[in-house]
Specification:
Elements lengths: L19 E2 L4 H14 L3 E4 L16 E4 L15 E5 L4 H10 L16 H7 L6 H4 L6 E7 L5 E4 L12 H5 L8 E8 L6 E9 L2 H14 L3 E8 H11 L11 E9 L4 H9 L6 E4 L3 H12 L1 H6 L5 E6 L5 H15 L4 E7 L4 E7 L7 H12 L24 H14 L21
Parallel strand pairs: 1-3, 2-3
Antiparallel strand pairs: 4-7, 5-6, 5-7, 8-10, 8-11, 9-10, 9-13, 12-14, 13-14
């Protein structure tokens, strides 16, 4: 059965494929790509298929190259604080493996149980703790990848200082499977921070909430996460999952804040919150169970919003000073261009990344996408923060990238994949397509 490989997680993007190939080694990936290149067969590399912008599904009838069987997971190298993992290893498995050896893999996201190392490299996933540790690109110290013609590039030495030319790991990270097929990666680990404190802060308005996020980043070195959501999202999570708000009344918006360190960061967090203006109420987790409950209120947003029908998922970054007004402006804009639709907001307030989900709009009606992403670009933001460009945002890439930049992108693509068989129509148009407007 190939159906599960031909539709994305949201259900908004679906296609067909003549075949799903599931290699179990880099050598097998190489042979598959060699054959596909020889016969001019287009290929879509696919990891855990948790993508949200149509970048990992065969919308043009391509062969699906599933990397889930690339399960290599080497022993942690204690002296270097690094580990080599295959593209098919899930983020949760990698985290558990690192923890068992006294280390931590710091990239974390709600889809950790199914998102894979290869997929997060393809999109340069940021996740929940980017404000402290950086995104996936910052964790890469080496990479193994297969080119479109089957040749293997392997640079997994893991040297922190290695100025011997172009950084291919960094280039392939975020390339969405358009340049090469990542089969394995050497990844940086971090010392654990065993003492953790989590709090939910309530606000009566978005302006003090985003100001608080900026203030906490500036004054609390132990800060790991600052997650944002609104009352509407919290109410939907409560309705559909039975989870309860820790507060006796409703507030307009919330920040889920977490700090961690070798010693208890609780006093530092308490002091930082006390100096923060606009906090209407605070709930502090006093146990691991309470901590998981608070995180559920944020992490369940994606799942419950999806029950309302395939959402338009607009993952964007805004300058910090524009965040508060943007939430209100987009709510009005959505109603203006798509009466009856509803906008849901949540995301990573610490790094300016908001996930705008719009429900009540047909999957292939891009009116809302155009309006919202045009506003994002006008405000100096990015149309894609961490989900990638995929196919969903391909028409809008020119809003953030100049013609000169796009021509360089095309030149890089042509150098890596001259026949254009790797993920055609994703991130950049196929080589013979017309230039962007």
């Amino acid at each position: 059965m190939t159906a599960g490989y031909a539709v994305d997680w949201t259900g908004r993007f679906s296609g067909t494929t003549p075949a799903v190939v599931r290699p179990g080694s880099t050598t097998e990936v190489s042979r598959v790509m060699e054959i596909c290149c020889e016969h001019g067969l287009a290929v879509v590399p696919q990891g855990g298929n948790t993508g949200l912008v149509g970048g990992g599904v065969p919308l043009g009838g391509e062969v699906v190259l599933s990397l889930r069987r690339l399960r290599r997971l080497d022993a942690v190298e204690q002296a270097a604080g690094q580990v080599t993992a295959g593209a098919g290893v899930t983020i949760a498995e990698l985290q558990d493996h690192a923890e068992a050896s006294g280390w931590r893999y710091a990239v974390d996201l709600g889809a950790r149980e199914s998102a894979t190392v290869g997929g997060t490299i393809a999109t340069n996933a940021g996740g929940l703790r980017m404000i402290r540790y950086g995104g996936t690109r910052q964790q890469l110290t080496g990479i193994e990848a297969v080119l479109a013609d089957g040749r293997v590039l392997s640079h997994l030495g893991g040297l922190v200082k290695d100025n011997t030319g172009y950084d291919l790991a960094s280039l392939l990270c975020g390339s969405e499977g358009t340049l090469a097929v990542v089969s394995a990666a050497r990844l940086r680990l971090h010392p654990p921070s065993p003492e953790v404190v989590t709090a939910l802060l309530a606000f009566s308005d978005t302006s003090p909430a985003f100001a608080a996020a900026a203030g906490l980043r500036r004054t609390l070195p132990e800060l790991e996460a600052v997650e944002f959501f609104l009352h509407g999202g919290l109410a939907l999570v409560s309705e559909l999952t039975g989870a309860k708000s820790p507060f006796s009344k409703a507030f307009d918006c919330y920040l889920l804040v977490e700090a961690a360190g070798v010693t208890d960061p609780g006093p530092a967090l308490e002091s930082a919150i006390a100096r923060t203006t606009g906090v209407a109420d605070v709930a502090v987790a006093l146990s691991d169970t309470q901590r998981r409950r608070l995180w559920h209120l944020r992490e369940a947003h994606t799942e419950v919003i999806n029950t309302l029908g395939p959402p338009h998922k607009l993952d964007v970054t805004l300058p910090h000073e524009a965040l508060a007004a943007f939430v209100g402006d987009v709510s009005e804009l959505v109603q203006e261009v798509a009466p009856g639709a509803e906008a849901w907001f949540f995301g990573h307030a610490g790094d300016g990344n908001l996930h705008v989900n719009v429900t009540g709009v047909e999957p292939y009606d891009d009116t809302v996408d155009t309006a919202v992403l045009s506003l994002v670009a006008h405000l100096g933001g990015s149309i894609s923060a961490e989900h990638g460009v995929g196919r969903a945002k391909l028409p809008y890439l020119h809003l953030n990238r100049s013609p000169g930049e796009l021509s360089v992108f095309r030149a890089i693509k042509a150098a890596f994949d001259p026949r254009g068989i790797l993920n055609p129509g994703v991130l950049l148009p196929a080589p013979d397509a017309a230039a962007e407007g």
